[in-house]
Amino acid sequence: MIGGADLTSKFALDVQGVSQLKLEAKQSSPEALKAAAQQFEAVFMNMLMKSMREASPQDGMFDSEQTRMYTAMLDQQLTQKLASRGIGLADMMVRQLSRTLNAPGVDGASSDGTTPAGLPLNPPQKGMELNAPPLRVQAPGEVPAPSPATQTVAPIATRSGDNPPHVDAFVQKLLPHARAASASSGIPASFMMGQAALETGWGRNEIRGADGQNSHNLFGIKAGGSWKGRTVDIVTTEYVNGKPQKQVDTFRAYDSYADAFRDYANLLRGNARYQNAIAQGQDAAGFAQGLQQAGYATDPGYAQKLMGVIRMVETT
Question: Which of 14, 142, 233, 238 is an active site residue?
Fold first, then answer.
């Protein structure tokens, strides 16, 4: 019945389809909820696309208000199509809102004064007090000397059920390694987990060698001249003057995920150009922007993507 309200395969500016979705939503049907969640996911993806466009150079020969308008329309249609496959956000919303709609007393409390099942209220958690060395600028090649200091590391909630299974599995598998690296470096575990998730697509696109062997490189760290360990060569997408280009790069390979987290933390703390990023403390936005400004990645939208993934990790 609701098949007509599936807007992901229609023209993005089809107001008639939106009106039909609004009509079906009044009946609170599961199909309408799913369609609305997909539309929200499309809007979210379009916002990401818009941010990436704004971060790209826009002073070309053929750049004008007209080309920007048609590019925006193309992006709307593209994100509408991508939302039909989804990135997991719509599924998460459907699961959460389904519990809310099916719970008694959704206006805030049930008749017996209890909290509705669809609106879980988690008490605030205090940060864990961990010993970590102070954040300071290191000279190139200098090994940071350990010194005791108290650093509040943001805890990562372990509320499962709201995310796709592969997301929960990724977090549960790597969280102990992130916490161990956080304890020795002072970098919040959620920040490291967020970057590992972004670089590997929640573990589904890890760097592997030609023989299929896992490199355990969760952070896309390339192998420079100073690297003496194993390496892996893969084809990557780099942004040159705002335009994506394919090229072959050599990356570091590790024996374990624990080694990857330790090397990542050492890289950030031991390189002066990343000091502004790790000096942001618990500020995820400052950390992400600091990494992009330091040239960690060439993607012009890297900071925005990283902020979004970190927030998702912190609520997982």
Answer: 238
Q: What is the pLDDT of residue 29?
A: 67
Q: Where are the beta strands (DSSP E) in 121-257?
A: 128-131, 150-153, 231-240, 243-252
Domains of the chain (ranges plus CATH)? 2-102 (no CATH), 128-222+254-314 (1.10.530.10)
Q: Which of 263, 283, 299, 314 is catalytic?
A: 263
Q: Is 249 a catalytic residue?
A: no
Q: At what angle do helices 257-270 and 165-185 cross, to 10 degrees?
A: 50
177 closest CA partner among 298, 288, 258, 295: 258
Distance CA 137, CA 130 (A): 21
The predicted pLDDT at position 68 comes to 72
Alpha carbons 237 and 289: distance in angstroms, whole number: 20
pLDDT for the residue numbered 195? 95
238 is known as an active-site residue: yes
pLDDT < 50 stretches in the chain: 1-4, 15, 103-160
Q: Token digits for 13?
A: 């500016």
- Does the pTM of the predicted model rise above 0.85? no
